[in-house]
Each structure stands twice: as C-alpha cells, then as structure tokens.
Amino acid sequence: MALFALVLLSNSQISEQAATFVQPAIRLPRSVDPELDEKCTDNTACGWAVYKPFTRSIENYMRNTCSCPESTKCIRTDDDLSISAFVYRCRKVDDTTR
Asked: Long-range contacts made by residues 19-28, C-beta under 8 angstroms, separation at least 24?
C-alpha cells in the first residue's frame, strides 16, 4: 500500500512540475503582407477583455486575428456576461469629438 501511495504522489508531483513549464500559446499573425490581412466585419469582434465576474477587473485582453479597416478603431461595444468579457468591435471614430 505504501508503494502505491508513493507512486501516486510522485505522479502528481510530476504533473505539477510539468504544468509550470507549459507556456501560453502565442498567436502568430496570419500574414506578413498588410494587404493580405483579413479585415474584421461590423459584426465580428476584434477583441475581448476577459474580466473577473464580480469585480469586473480585466485579467487579459485577446485580439482577434482580423484587423480593423482604415478609418475604424477597435472599441468596446458590448459586455458578454456569458463569457465574462467586454467585447470590442471595429467602429468609425468621429475625429471632431476627440
């Protein structure tokens, strides 16, 4: 029985050690040529700000692989409670209000 507990303990320690070496996935751009970049449409999210559910403090911002067309900016438009994230979409920016 002691041998089984030792094997079980060593397996869990290996899992914990392996977890510390796992690096977050890095999203690479789809294209090097800016003319070939996919543009986000009006309904496509250009980013998400994931937050803690009750405090709504932002933990992480994730950009989409598409980019906003010229004359638009990626701005916060929605709050998706189901995924605890603010949703960002490409919208035209009025230069006179800045």
From this structure: 27/63, 27/65
Please list the pLDDT of the chain residue by residue as tens digits (98 residues). Answer: 444 443 344 444 444 544 444 445 555 555 556 566 799 998 999 999 999 999 999 999 999 999 999 999 999 999 999 999 999 999 998 766 45
Taking the C-alpha atoms of residue 57 and residue 90, their distance in angstroms, rounded to an integer, is 23
Ramachandran angles phi, psi of 16, nearest 5°: -65, -40
pTM over 0.85: no
The answer as to whether 82 is a domain residue is yes
Is 91 among the domain residues?
yes
The amino acid present at 94, given as its one-letter code, is D
Domain holding 62, by residue range, is 31-98
Token reading at 16:
């914990």
